[in-house]
Write a structure and sequence with these properties.
There is one protein chain. The chain is of the alpha/beta class. It folds into three domains: 80 residues, no CATH class; 173 residues, Rossmann fold (3-Layer(aba) Sandwich); 76 residues, Winged helix-like DNA-binding domain superfamily/Winged helix DNA-binding domain (Arc Repressor Mutant, subunit A, Orthogonal Bundle), CATH 1.10.10. The chain is 46% helix and 13% strand. It has 18 helices and eleven strands. The protein has a nine-stranded mixed beta sheet, sandwiched between helices. The longest helix has 16 residues. It is globular, with a radius of gyration of 23 Å. About 6% of the residues have low confidence.
């Protein structure tokens, strides 16, 4: 994928330094500007789920103070555009020139498509690591910092199993569930994303510096904050919307009723993403948040199949991956025709077929696709039925 132009990056960096300038505000300004100057910005797209046009951004950056006032910008915003902090912009450009470091703006082709569909997408993303991982199928794993031994095992094992299926694990690098899920993904030889509430040069917590380095080498560190931004309490709820926004779903492992994990789950619900929760003891305060989510409609999770079964994006990805690698024919312990014995003449869920045949769910999906093409089974609501 081509690297965006230096000029375009500089324009977006100027906007990043403008007070109270988010994507929603920028859309309104560009729409107003387009109405005033239809010939200059004729191709601008004002739908908040589409791409902002770089030509319109360039036009905005080059307006005079008088013209900016007509767009209803305040004096602080006008000064930030007409007299940008060139020294800071140059430092950020220098930061992005370093190996393995990137700045991705909203109109950058590398910007994650999933983030464009949330209510308040970040204007810029600072990334250390592989930018390609931002557009891969992924699941967010969040939960308590003060988790139990069982919670530690669950976070690590779910992270590992997802990674082994080539599903990206996204979390927040915090102590507790975040750290264990990242480590599980690394143990599973897969990709993981850590979204920070600080700048990428200010790793928090400090004890996770080595883990952060591993993640940057096997996935990506991501932040919307300037690289030297230190930890501030108000930044962490903001980063939670990115954790859920990068993912097809969010799994909550142990959470109190009042916790940041429930904020992430709430964002996921608002973003129309699936929410999953692992139940626990009715006597444990660390289970109450998960139980509350389940009452609100989150799916109760006992194993990885409960998640894959619910997310069609994962099913399609795993089936395609298995076919490309000829995985079903190379690793399956059950011949295709024998798999039919585990499929009824009524709708049979994929996870039930997986359990009956003792096959990994990605192998089952690959074989089911072959069998469907051969006319042996049919995909129906609730699973597959034998023909």
């Amino acid at each position: 994928m081509n690297t965006p132009s230096t000029e375009a990056l500089r324009h977006w960096l100027v906007l990043k330094l403008v007070p109270q300038m988010g994507v929603k505000t920028l859309h309104k300004i560009i729409e107003h500007l387009t109405n005033q100057n239809p010939n200059e910005c004729s191709d601008t797209i004002t739908d908040s789920n589409k791409t902002l046009d770089n030509n319109a951004i360039k036009t905005l950056i080059n307006l005079s103070a008088t013209q900016l006032r007509k767009l209803k910008l305040n004096e602080r915003q006008i000064k930030a555009i007409t007299q940008p902090n060139q020294s800071l912009i140059e430092r950020m450009e220098q930061w992005a020139s370093e190996q393995n470091q990137h700045i991705i703006y909203y109109d950058d082709p590398r910007y994650p498509d999933t983030l464009k569909h949330i209510a308040s997408p970040p204007l810029l993303l600072f990334v250390k690591g592989d930018t390609n991982v931002l557009n891969t199928p992924g699941l967010a794993i969040v939960g308590s910092r003060n988790l139990t031994i069982t919670g530690q095992d669950n976070a690590f094992n779910f992270g590992k199993k997802l990674a082994q299926m080539s599903i990206t694990v996204t979390s927040g690098l915090a102590i507790g569930v975040d750290g264990f899920s990242h480590r599980g993904a690394l143990e599973g030889k897969g990709k993981t994303i850590a979204v920070l509430g600080t700048g990428l040069d200010q790793i928090y917590p400090k004890r996770h510096r080595a883990l952060a380095q591993q993640i940057s080498e096997n996935g990506a560190l991501v932040s919307e904050f300037l690289p030297d931004q230190t930890a501030r309490p108000e930044n962490f709820p903001r980063r939670n919307r990115i954790i859920s926004g990068l993912s097809q779903g969010t799994l909550v492992i142990e959470a109190a009723i009042k916790s940041g994990s429930l904020i992430t789950a709430k964002y996921a619900m608002e973003q129309d993403r699936e929410v999953f929760a692992i139940p626990g003891s009715i006597h444990s305060p660390m289970s109450k948040g998960c139980h509350w989510l389940i009452k609100q409609g989150a799916k109760l999770v006992e194993d990885i199949n409960d998640i894959v079964e619910e997310l069609s994006a994962f099913q399609h990805f795993l089936a395609e991956r298995a076919i490309v690698n000829i995985q079903a024919k190379q690793t399956s312990a059950v011949p295709e025709d024998d798999l039919l014995k585990h499929i009824g003449f009524e709708a049979t869920a994929v996870d039930s077929i997986s359990q009956r045949s003792s096959l990994p769910i990605h192998d089952v999906l690959a074989q089911l696709l072959d069998m469907e093409l051969a006319g042996k089974v049919a995909a129906v609501p609730g699973g597959y039925l034998r023909l």
